[in-house]
Every structure is written in structure tokens, then in C-alpha cells.
Amino acid sequence: MKTKRFLVVVLAVLFLFTGLSSAIAGGKQEKETETSPAKQEKVKITIWCMAFDPHVNGFTNVIEEFNSRQIDIEVILEPQPGQAEMVSKMRSALSAKKGAQAFTTPGTTITEWVVPGNLLPLSPDVVTTEQVKRDFLPENYIQCHIDEKIWAIGIPDPPGDAGLIVNVDHLKEAGLPVLEEFESVDQLLEYAKKLVKYDGDRIIRGGLSFQESNDPMFFYSYIADIGGEFWDNDAQKFTLQTKEARQVLQFFHDLFYKYNLDSVELPDTLSALSQNLTSMGFMWPEFLPFAESLYPDLDFGFIMKPSLSGKKPPINHTDTWNVVVPSYVSGKEKDATFEFLRFLISEEGQLLFLDANPGLSPLKSLSFNHDYYKTGKGAYLAPVIEAMKAGRYRYWGPFIDADVMLYDILWPNIDAYLHNDISLDEALRKMETELNVQDARTRAKYPNAPKTVIYYDSLPPGLEL
Fold it and tell me: What is the pTM of this model?
């Protein structure tokens, strides 16, 4: 009996032990299954960007590297067909409070979207206000810093009105060197006169194109170049019916009708450059990496613009590209999005983007010190960087709805004047009136929006390079 009882006790203990072991093992296995990286559900976040090769390829470089390091996050890029379509889709998403977790958007829209509460401020573990002010190029602080918070981070992008895109083969055919910078307007016009081609009285290849919807940025900067102002800081109103604005707009008109270097019968500057229908054009420098992928048989270069005043002209970086996070993003998606933005704004992330999109990084440590801008793909921007260091850098804004002002008011009226549909005085009057009406309407809608203060002769105090 004792033996049997002993065996029963032993068997019971063994059973209990085995059961406990199985339970423990099962629990452990269940726990491992729940937390297994291979089976864990990933947090997926989507980024919308314009279907513009330098942006798509730049984001792809960053996203592929980021995703390869992640256990529980997957970033998906969804390029949108064009800027207008993308902005429309973003507005719809913000209204419906549903869509991508991050957008790429021009810097001109940041204030417009922050004021009504459509964006999330970035957490200090992405970037801090002091970090942006100290370590980033000035425009990133000016346009992204509102109510002591940072609302966006930049992606590589060069100053839009820094100079001209030139067809290198056309210059070589005419025996003209590719300069770093045009020293005078006369020199620019001499180049253009040697490059333009005619069939009788008709221009069949332009010498110098001014037909790009971003060209009003050159208009603003040239007004400042000759000592004028296009915005009254005290009155908070646009002032375009001035002798300086008149002189600048007349100069662009003269390219068509006095110097006979461009024709309204030719396509817009981007199309004309890509179709060999112009030799030079007032164009954003980002055209170079764009053209390299889409038009590999064409050889383009970049030359800094000349001054109308005889001095060194200012360059501005208002039309930047940035990444913002809509206010409807929350929880794990918000955390995952901010984790990606931390990587994107790091030096490593920026260099990955720059490999496909040679612009200026928001990070001063890269733009001012890295070999990428001395011997790498960004070397064509070396004259721009030197101009920035020499004190020629500006920021025209921020205006609440600058995109509407640029594309729906400024350019249509300038274009109408270039087509002789309206007079010079009428163009200036219409632009000034329409801009002020638009600004007043928007400020009435958002009365707490910050004032716009333009620093015509320098950068704002504390942001000097």
C-alpha cells in the first residue's frame, strides 16, 4: 500500500509538474507567438508626394532604407499626378479627416493649414524649435515656426529664383562658355541674342524664355534688387503700382517685343527646354535632376542670374518643399510617422534623398560643409551657396495662401501682359488689387494668423547665415 501510495503520489507530482511545464511552455509559446516579429502586424503609414521624379526617387531611397531597419513599421509612398491635383487631394483629405499620414507640400501652404488646425506640430523628439533655428536654413524656421512649435520639415530643394537653366550644347555651338554667374543683364542679353534662331521674322528657337508659372518669384526679387518693395510691412498690404515694379515687369516684356528673344507662340519654359525650343530660361534649378532622368539626351547647366541694379541680386527660397502631418493622424500611426520623419531629417536620411534630388538640404551642416556640394552631385549649387554666405539670401513671406497668390493672381496677370491682352499699368493694378483682396479675405477668416514681415535687405535678426 505504501509503495502504491508512493507511486500514486509520484505520478501525481509528475503529472502536476508535466502539466505545469506544458502550461508554462504553452504560455511562453503563446506569448512568443503574440510578440514574434515575423507575425506581428506592422503599422503602415502612407506618404503622398507629387509624381516628380526627383521627389519620388528621393523618397524611395529614404523609405527603402528606413523600412529595411523596421520590425513594426512600413512606409508606403503614393505619388500624385501633379501639384494642383495633389493639393486638391490633400485639401479633401484634411476636410474629410482621412487620408495619408504625411504630405509633401510647398512651404507656402504651411501657414494656411496651421492656422485652422489642420496640421500636427512635430514632437520635440523629431526636431525642436531651437534645433531648427540653429541648425536649419532660415526659411525652415520662418515658415515652419508658429506658436512656438515646428509644423514641418524640409526635403532637399534649391532656391527657385537663383538663376537660369541653359542648354549646354546650344552654348557650345555658339562658342559661349557656361558661366557660374551672369555678371550683368547686358551679358545675359548678349548670350540670348547669339542663341535665338529665326525663320524670317518668326522665332523658332528662343534665346531666353520667361514663361514659367513660378517666375513671379523672379519678379519679387528683382523689385527688391532695384530698391523697391512689393509689400508694405506697416500697412500690411501689397504695393505693386510702383516705379520699381513697373521697371521689372517692363524688362520681362522687353524680352519678347524689344529684344525679340522669346515668343508667346513658343510653349512654356519647361516644355520649351525639354523640346529644344529655347536655349535658356528663368527656371528653378531643380529642373536639372528632373531633366536628367526624363531627357537624358539633353545636356543642361545652371547659371546664376544677373542683377538689374548692377549689384549682386538677392535670391529667395520661398517655394520650398516640406513634409507635414495632418491633425487627424493619431496613436500608433502618429508615432510611426514621427519615427520616419526623425530618419528623414537626419544627415543620413537627407543624403539618401539628395542622391536622387540634388538640391539644398535644410541642414546647414550638409549644405555648407559637405563634399556633396563641392565634388558631388550638388556641386552645381556651389555658386548659390557662396551667394547665400555672402548675404544675398532672402525669404519673401510667409503669406497665408501664397500658392493662390502665385498661381491664380500673379502669373495669370503677368502672362496676360506678356500676351498684350492687358497693359502694363493694368497688370500692376490688377495684381495689387487682387492680391490685397485675397489677403484681406483670408485674414478675415483667420484673424489670429501672424503678420507678414518682409526683410528686404537681410534675413530676420537671429537667422543670419
Answer: 0.88
